[in-house]
Amino acid sequence: MRTLGGLLLALGGISLLSGNWNELTGLGQLIGKELLYWGLVAALLGYVIKVERRPLASVGFRRPGWKDWSLAFFVGLLILACLGLIYYVVFPALNWSENQHLAQLATIPYWLNGLIVVRAAVSEELLFRGYAVERLQELTGSRFVAGALSCSVFALDHVGSWGWHHVLVAGAAGAIFTVFYLWRRNLWACMLAHFIVDAAAFLSG
């Protein structure tokens, strides 16, 4: 029951917060939503420690080695290459575009975009990979089922802000993040890889 409660907190909580960003136009609204994300992160960490009475290593917070950091950079670059293929080859072939969403992101102050990138790397990797993958594997006994379920929720949670086209983008990135986590079981490395991808996408312009 504790595990189910934690999964409801992690996946249910972030799904509720992953609504349509386009409806938020005020700076105060955007900052408020970011604070809610950090509150969810704190709540889940508290749940692991106080309710489950387990160490944070049980959700992937393990000391990374040089190989983890090196692989994080490689995975980040790999995902960027895959996303480049999707945006510049697949989307044009299907006559799809996300230019409207990208233009709306450009109206957000650069400093806030930077904070969002950091928050996304921390919260999404903790909730979707570190907690969800570990606990779902315990419940199902299957690495594949755990990875597939968490990755599916990750991809679908991006629909509210980006539209259904983005399932392909988030699904591809999420699949690689998930495989990387299942391989290394190191949340710090996954967070770094995630930060590299989002920073290159949203802060390099």
From TrEMBL:
Keywords: Membrane, Transmembrane, Transmembrane helix. The keyword Transmembrane helix applies. The chain crosses the membrane at residues 35-51, 71-90, 162-183. It holds the Pfam family Rce1-like. InterPro entries: Rce1/LyrA-like_dom (IPR003675). It comes from the Bacteria. Residues 111-199 form the CAAX prenyl protease 2/Lysostaphin resistance protein A-like domain. The keyword Membrane applies. This is CAAX prenyl protease 2/Lysostaphin resistance protein A-like domain-containing protein.
